[in-house]
Automatic annotation (TrEMBL):
Signal peptide: none annotated. InterPro entries: Perm_prefix_1. The chain crosses the membrane at residues 115-132, 144-163, 170-189, 209-229, 250-275, 281-301, 322-341, 347-368, 380-402, 414-433, 453-473. Keywords: Membrane, Transmembrane, Transmembrane helix. It comes from Agromyces aurantiacus. This is Permease prefix domain 1-containing protein.
Amino acid sequence: MGIDDRPDLDVLVRSWRRWLERREALDAHDLDELESHLLDRVDELRAVGLHDDEAFLVAVKRLGAVDELSREYARVHSERLWTQLVLGDGDGSASGAASAPPGAARAPLPFARRAHGLAVALGLGVGAGLAVKVADLLTAEPTFFIRNAALLVLPFLVAWFAWKHRPPAGALAIVAGAFALAGVALNAYPFAAGAGTQLFASEPSMTELLAAVHAVVALWLVSGIAYAAGAWRSDAARMDFVRFSGEWAVYYLLIALGGGALSMLTVAVFGSIGVDVMTFVADWVLPCGAAGAVLVAAWLVEAKQRAIENIAPVLTKVFTPIFALMMLALIVAALLQWNLVDASRDLLIAFDLVLVVVLGLLVYAYSARDPLLPPGWFDRLQFVMLASALVVDLVVLVAMIARIGEFGPSANKAASLGLNLILLANLAWAAWLHLGFLRRRNAFDRLERWQTAYLPVYVGWSAIVVIVFPPLFGFA
């Protein structure tokens, strides 16, 4: 019986091989040889009565005993089951050498693939920065950058995914089609001027601002198709992209903080000797740096994967209690000042943004958790945060409906209401599944699958706000 007759084993082996393909140290011949060894061991184990998945796990463990990359695969792969079964037998520091044929000299890596593709990431980062600056020099329209921020930068991120993960042409065509559609909608619509919201020395209309923000969300998630190498229907691939997004956000924030501090220090130092570099920093360094940092953060996620795997659980354990307390405080505040109908629009939008951050933290915590561990105190704390967020969402939903009834509908009220309903559905079912996990009624991976299955809902809603809202509300 060949591997083609064993679809479950085929999926496992292809997943294992895709992961190894990301490592520049292995070429196609090396991978074929490792896969051949792996399948031989699987066949031996099946011959003594093991099922395909059991044989695969044990074979990876045994292969990992002589191959550092297989050990690393087990260490970082999203399926923590493999971590449990493959690791735990020493550090294997010498195993990488053991895996190489005796006396064989490995060919040097191509320049582009050294340091996990740093040169390619930097080149694409420079390209993203130049795209922003060239657009700045060619257009005098102040709202152009607000509308086209995602279109100027994210194609370079897709190019990085394409170079790194080699998605099929069909997947890239889908991503390109989504970018083209967003580009047409954002630049062909006759948006009206002035919504009373000043942003980057411009005053975009409300539908223009909403379309720009939701375009970033939609195109980021669509870029995940390239990251997943086209396997966007796979729950594991979607969770990998969720994990990437959370880690990317951490790195981007650190880069932004460091870059901001360095810029201020540079301006101060040059100012002390009578040289004004503020204009140069504002016009060149900040816009180009912000765009280029998107690629640098993406490179850091993959190059420093082990480091972030240690950071992610710490971050979730630090911020989950804080956000749980914040949710409880918001409930108390809402009870003390119940008339939220009179609350400002900005306050209700801020509530929604807090809920988005809470949900993001929850999903990031799911991605960093070992699904095999039994429920513990941190899971109960997460449930408190989840239940509190659900109550806050209901309070904000009531306030929004009341405001629409009193003041009439508008683009921003409709967008906020839609987001609130989407979050409510997600939080409600997530709370139900989480409660079932705490009561040991269902496995933890149901929580992960629910969140990854919900990603297309965000894409769909964002696309509606980008494409349907502007004409629906008269481009106002």
